[in-house]
User: What shape does this take?
Amino acid sequence: MARVLTPRAEDFPRWYQDLIAKAQLADNGPVRGTMVIRPAGYAIWERMQAEMDGRIKLAGAENAYFPLFIPESYLRREAQHVEGFSPELAVVTHGGGKPLAEPIVVRPTSETVIGEFMAKWVDSYRDLPLLLNQWANVVRWELRPRIFLRTSEFLWQEGHTAHADEADARAYARKILHEVYEDFMVNVLGIPVLVGLKTARERFAGATHTYTLEGMMGDGKALQMGTSHELGQNFAKAFDITYTSAAGGVEHAWTTSWGSSTRMLGGLIMAHGDDNGLRVPPRLAPTQAYVMVVKAGDGVAEAAAKLCDALRDAGVRVGFDDRVDTPFGRRAVDAELKGYPVRVELGPRDLAAGNAVLVRRTSGAKTPVPVADVVSAVLAALDADQQTLHDEALAMRESRTASVKTLDEAIEAAGAGWALVPWSAVGAEGEAKANAQAVTVRCLRRADGSVPDSEDEPDLVAILARSY
Amino acid sequence: MARVLTPRAEDFPRWYQDLIAKAQLADNGPVRGTMVIRPAGYAIWERMQAEMDGRIKLAGAENAYFPLFIPESYLRREAQHVEGFSPELAVVTHGGGKPLAEPIVVRPTSETVIGEFMAKWVDSYRDLPLLLNQWANVVRWELRPRIFLRTSEFLWQEGHTAHADEADARAYARKILHEVYEDFMVNVLGIPVLVGLKTARERFAGATHTYTLEGMMGDGKALQMGTSHELGQNFAKAFDITYTSAAGGVEHAWTTSWGSSTRMLGGLIMAHGDDNGLRVPPRLAPTQAYVMVVKAGDGVAEAAAKLCDALRDAGVRVGFDDRVDTPFGRRAVDAELKGYPVRVELGPRDLAAGNAVLVRRTSGAKTPVPVADVVSAVLAALDADQQTLHDEALAMRESRTASVKTLDEAIEAAGAGWALVPWSAVGAEGEAKANAQAVTVRCLRRADGSVPDSEDEPDLVAILARSY
Assistant: This one.
């Protein structure tokens, strides 16, 4: 087969760009750092949204929508927040043909404007917890843009909640972390993320705790796939989110926020893609089975269409390709690029033998299957290949993760993958030293893999890596 | 019952504002003209999106996402387009802490940026038609904002398509008009819209034809609920969208665009709301049946929860209210405000008699129903009340529409509702005269109610009205 993409081993960033272009997932937008998400990419995002949205609603949060435009003064109310976001802001200075009295910021995130409304809506302890989420676009000016990973505008969900006390806020931030994000990433995206606590240096601007989910990409680097924050009372004090307690006193609420974005599309590509293109896990895939007419022939198109119906009736998301005017080889290369989990190829010779050919994207295996057995064979392949992609990603992570004892060893090991090292051997000073060599502390975990409440707990393990 | 809202007959605009606030549908945002869509309002929008999105996909269009930011120069490429939108633009002049070399416009609509990419993606006639849609926010600076109806930022879907010839573009613009918009508005929103052609004066900036769907509101005014445009070759020429035809020549494509927005939430309120609050048509309603525990009692909460399960199993979208600490009267008023189609009320006395009480929002009728029959009674009520709301809206429209012969009569009749008048009695000059009296030509139709191809066809009927 002719080489379609730059091989990963030759130039991973180039492979990534090639794949996005050739699989028609996205394009660069005309304003620097923006992107156009094309139908093939957007269909995957819609599936991500559907899976995430269901989990968010199960966790009790309700969707709402807050404005794109935020008065600049709102950002200044929380000192760390404005410091963190100021360098990334897009500012509207003219509206309706006139200069504005106060400049307006295009939201980089919505803690401030949502804080303002939480303050209006929360009155008594009976109004808590207040659990909100929105699906929206946000803008963070980006000097070194890369499609899906760092773009000046991206799409995301951002959850914002207010609670009566710290314990409830913490429990909810962790519920989202595990029941929404980790469950989705592991069981749908097939990416065995490591879940942990960010260090003070890596914390969200304005948070007291930032929890993260880190995935390993095909080049051994880490990608932050999502974060959940405890904001303590920082925003409640800045925006005056208070409530009357059952005892009658007036208290500040405790808030959280949590987000995941189109960056996950970048993670999907880099965790599962191979030199032939994307590989989409079956549970996520907008098209799970792609039925192809190999070439025209007596009854072939009809038999293929019947197979599509049978697969659809069995609950499979089906694509159909009967473009027999286009050479089959070119169509097969395109199907590989797009990463459909299973192809069902049907030509006159196959049909004469009563067969279709099942091609599995994960292994590349091609198996003739009697037409009557196609549905059950597809269902079995989709189930198995969901697991296969996860297990391959886990095996890669394990083979590229080294447990070491010292900071120098960890920085060395992070050249090829991830390093697990005692946090006591790193500390804030070691972290700065690692950063100077383009290595970051991705997160901290307890020895048993659980997520700590503080970086001051004893015996924590730090994960160090290069990252996106 | 205490008066909850300003009655419609007393002050319709005040009633509208009261309803939005008390049903907790939305709030004004901090930047003038922006809005916050609260969970109760957003849940309705999500149902609108789901119903519309399914129809858009059935019509063959694929979802994609184009950038929020558009270079100012793009808008200038189509002369009428820039003239139409310039007064409404929000302009970003600073990004990442620095002044920008070229000002950026926050999209008021996306014909220009999508045109740029259509030009890249379309090569041969085989690439046509190209059928795209996006769900997005847009910004049009608004001097006289009103929530849902005219806001500086709103949410919408905008479809953009490219075709090989005018006939195909026209057929598609009309397919969307009837199969997506009209079908949704009549059969889901329950609003008997009139569908017609806009006059040249009311046409979209850059279009050759604008088709519209006009709904009558409770005060007799018209609301434009959605539009579908033929753009001719205007944008294809401005953005160089060309293709190689089967014959080998290079041709400009023909494009369309079509949109519907959160404005439909305003239409829903004003078409169906009454003095007790919102009335949501059952097919649209996020909560179709609202099960309420009237007060605590032996086994009441359990019986109510069982009813919820039985309703859910029957495919009904269910809400549950067991907040027995809050006075029942207050909860019932709130349920009326929110417009849940059917309430199922269960108290100790009802349960002792083996009954629940079914309350229908449309008529206000309260009927005791044996617990075992609740599911079938709810299903029957939902079916019937979908039709009732539509028929009430139709009866109102008919009673407030006058067929007249002259422009003066039409302007007079538009003081109380809609006027049907021969277009030949109005014309461009009459239209200007009507506009001076705050009356507009909503659309033109043929005598048989079908949609004309041109305002120059003979025997057209003009609909004149005041409007939002």
